Amino acid sequence: MKIRHLLTAVAFALCASTATAQTFQLSHNAGAGNPKDAASLKFSEIVKEKSGGRLQVDVGGAAQFGDDAETITNMRLGTIAFSANSQGTTSAVVPEIALLGLPFLFQNLEQAEAVMDGPVGDKIAAAAEKQGLVVLGWWNNGIREVSNSKKPILAPDDLKGMKIRTPPDPMTIDIFEALGASPTPMAFSELYIALQQGVVDGQENPLINIYSSKLHEVQPFISMTNHKYEATPFLASKIVFDGLSAEDQEIVRAAAKEAGELNRKMVRDQSTELRTTLEAASIKFNEVDPAPFVAATQPVYEKWRAQYPELVDELIAAAKEAAK
Q1: Which residues form the signal peptide (predicted)?
Q2: Is a pLDDT exceeding 80 seen at residue 15?
């Protein structure tokens, strides 16, 4: 009888422990091994450890819980808790985020990180919170290059008439319209098949995304345009976040920071290593003279400055300061 009572007590304790655990979903669109995926898994691990198992996070990579746009909608409704989302998609509800992708604004990742970790990043995060999204960290996606199936891109004229897939991001669309291409917005989850079937001629992404999603299998040319920086806003649903205790909010913020450090390190390391890997896979790389690309995209600055004059100038000043 004593053993039976003991087993009953243990079973009751286990049930009680399970009942008090909260499980949340974290959505992103990247493939396995991508820094976005690795950092998301790290975030889940840290949250579970720091909360003693009270908080658990299920990571749904490769758009398992929906693409980035669906995820943003569900976060604002409170049905998905976290997302390592994309800059372009998030800008549909927080237009200020698009400004991070002004053409040729940042020369390297360290410069971008310094700006994102400063007052400008805080100002954009405040705009996101008004739209029901809490920015837990500015992770990195990388600096974007152009790949295509036809030829090296050496000058803006080489892009004329080419269908280039872009994210559903007005900044990227503006850039490629200014360069003379035919931008074709589509979800990242649809991109590989669209390239394989020739629906679009090319696309633009950091090398990390090109490699982890195997886009190089159907894109033999990569041109190092370095045309645009891309952040990965690591977001929480404001509805979900506000429902956490102060202690649990701190656990989540600390986990996001630590996971973000992993993400940034992986992006920096892989951004230099992957060119060698891709060249070994017979991908043809070429450098570009940035001057004609910079000149061709100046109207993009004029358009966005007309909408956000103070923030554009503040962002440019911060970028210049970080470059010193």
Answers
A1: 1-21
A2: no
